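Researcher: Please translate sequence to structure tokens.
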Amino acid sequence: MEKFKERQPEVESKERFGRNVKIRATFMRHAPKAEASDVSGKSLLSEEGRERAREVGRELEVKQHGIKAYTSPTERAIETADLVLEEQEKKETSILKSRERDELGLIPGSKDFYQQIKKLTKENLPPNYEKLEGEEKEEAFEKAEDKAVDWWLKMGDQKPDNETASPQEMAVSVARLVDRYIRMADRLYSGSEVDLLNVSHKGTLEPFLKEVLFRKVRDETGEEKVVRGFEELEEIGGGMRPTESWTLTIKTNKEGNKSIKLSFRGQECDLDMERLRELVNLSK
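Model: Translation complete:
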């Protein structure tokens, strides 16, 4: 496995690095897990989940200099990434060695916390849930789980209990990764175009969006305005669904100046860079 070619000791001309670079960092929720799975992270994907992961791999158009995957330490996230990369290999894409990242892991939480998430999800299931099938049943569960995740997201910088991370702490973890990728653009050889696949979980990625995402909405008069984040997941179409992703595109021009955009559900958005820096500083 090769590595992306990054800057070595400061011997060579500055123009050789950080000019006309493009990094596409995809943050993806893992594929559907088997029904017997639980929140322990030891579960694997269902057969349908494996096929959906492969489909992502078949459809992903990777930049010319290859793809590197970072995953949550959980088996279902690792398996999702492996299947995506297997399909990319068939397309003769350059595959770089995958790495696990704790920042992409499940919400660190107590048994009581996860029991409460399960309880709130069950309470919000529709009365006819058991009669539903296929995609309809999956979406009903996701919407019910969104309500449970909203309960936690509203805590902001507060922890549900001493063993469980606050939403802000989870946002900080993802912000650190995003900041690392933004700075990576300065170290890559000029003209580089690379893909970074990050496979994670529902509840891990949404707090970052709530903290830094600028999105366009229409007020009660129909006038368009820009707001940061959201109060409830429903405002952005719900939490991330299995294999769904948002993409951070980092570009530099011939002078090395950066532009950063986040694409999610058909909308290209800006980031609140000041808030991003604040989150990164909280981790120091």
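Researcher: Any highlights?
Model: Strands lie at 22-29, 67-71, 95-100, 193-200, 214-218, 224-228, 245-252, 258-264, 267-269.
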